[in-house]
Amino acid sequence: MSKAAKAAPTTDLSDAYPNKVTHCTLPFKDYGGKTMFAGKIHTVVTMEDNKKVQDFLHGPGDGAVLVVDSGGSMRTAMLGDITAGKMQANGWAGMIINGVIRDAERLRDVDVGVKALGTTPFKSTKNGIGASDVPVAFGNVLFEPGQYVYCDEDGVLLSESPLELPKT
Fold first, then answer.
1. CATH of 26-155 among 3.30.365.10, 3.60.60.10, 3.50.30.40, 3.30.1490.20
2. What is this structure's pTM?
């Protein structure tokens, strides 16, 4: 069994491990009830269709983070309050979306991390278009399944292995 990622401030992690982390440069906003979260990465790539996202989030999360590349589309949401509730109930740490969410006000009450580019009132299709657990690239980084991600208000960092802050 692999070691779980423990949430920690990204500023401290970047200071402690400057050669072991990469930084996603997209201007994400925080929407979930948690702003600091971390976990092993799973990925989905799709365009305006959240069926594969739902498939993941309705299953056991084991503290993982789902990274969704929807091409930066601002038209339809990849996550809403109902699926976010399932995400919390199933033990997911959070979700990072190269795209948008809906139900922003209600997502603040869900105890998971959610980073996205913005919001829209429009829901997505549910046809199952896309791929799961494949490398996805955005924000000047390559997110690969099995890597670890660390998120807070200051940014998104990636690492090949779980990181812990050095004891002081």
1. 3.50.30.40
2. 0.95
